Amino acid sequence: MKSTIIIVLLSSLCLIQQTSAKLCARMGRHLLETTCVLTPEGGEGPYYISYPELIRKDIREDRTGLPLQLKFTLTDVTKCEPIHNASIDIWQADPYGFYSSYTKNSPDARRRRRAAVQDEKRLSLGVPHAPPTDNTTFLRGVQFTDENGEAEFLTVFPGWYSSRTPHIHVMAHVNGKTVHVSQIYFKNDLIRNIKRLSPYKQRANLAPTNEADYIFRRDNGHLAIVNQIKPTDGRRISRGLTGQITLGMDPSKTSKKALNAS
Ligand SMILES: *[C@@H]1O[C@H](CO)[C@@H](O)[C@H](O)[C@H]1NC(C)=O
Ligand SMILES: *[C@@H]1O[C@H](CO)[C@@H](O)[C@H](O)[C@H]1NC(C)=O
């Protein structure tokens, strides 16, 4: 906590005091580029499956939707340094609300809300994930961070199922240990615009706002929003989005949210 405050103070100082640029550079080149603040962890949810063989940037397979190029930057908050060679898993729903490996589970509104509550209860009792219904793997993948702590995916903007606002699940491992589990989110005004686009508009009336999603509220989702997001061509979001999010974590600690902590 204390180091976070110091970093924030130094960052503000460095931003204001242009003349002290050299000094700021000495404090670490990443100080100004990244936020070394612990990102709150979030629930793992019932649909994680470890697929270590799915090392790929493009996770779309046959899924069509709004292309989303998503860059993660992983920082070690104890040192304010990038984490090199962490593996990062992401998994998410397609534009219709389906998860791969669970395509028999309908994203239908009310059932899904009840099922989600049941899942949460089951998970809090330490019961493993929901049993897969099939072997599809779309919108799942693993990447390793480079020396700047960065890893990039090419996916589609996630869909929603009635109780859940659009989100992407993230899990990070360092030397095989699960160090971070969370869900990342998007701004409501962006979601509002995406609801007008095909194929998302087919389910537009089912999309809740972030604040109406109880998991978003419970997990402090407002601290895990992909803030840096823009149209890939610089003009229209309908052609695709590019986003970046920094996740701060302590790589010496095992995640408290990991169900199969390894
Ligand atoms: C997935 O594929 C394996 C190997 O082909 C098979 O044994 C298993 O039953 C499949 N699982 C499901 C849920 O379909
Ligand atoms: C990167 O991490 C993987 C798995 O955690 C490990 O097997 C590999 O040796 C690491 N590579 C480097 C260069 O540290």
UniProtKB/TrEMBL annotation:
Domain Intradiol ring-cleavage dioxygenases: 44-190
Keyword Ion transport annotated: no
Gene3D superfamilies given in the database record: Aromatic compound dioxygenase
Range of residues in the leader sequence: 1-21
Pfam families, per database record: Dioxygenase_C (PF00775)
Record keywords, A-Z: Signal
Molecular-function GO term, any one: ferric iron binding
UniProt entry tagged with the keyword Signal: yes
Protein name: Intradiol ring-cleavage dioxygenases domain-containing protein
Protein's organism: Blomia tropicalis (Mite)
Source lineage: Eukaryota, Metazoa, Ecdysozoa, Arthropoda, Chelicerata
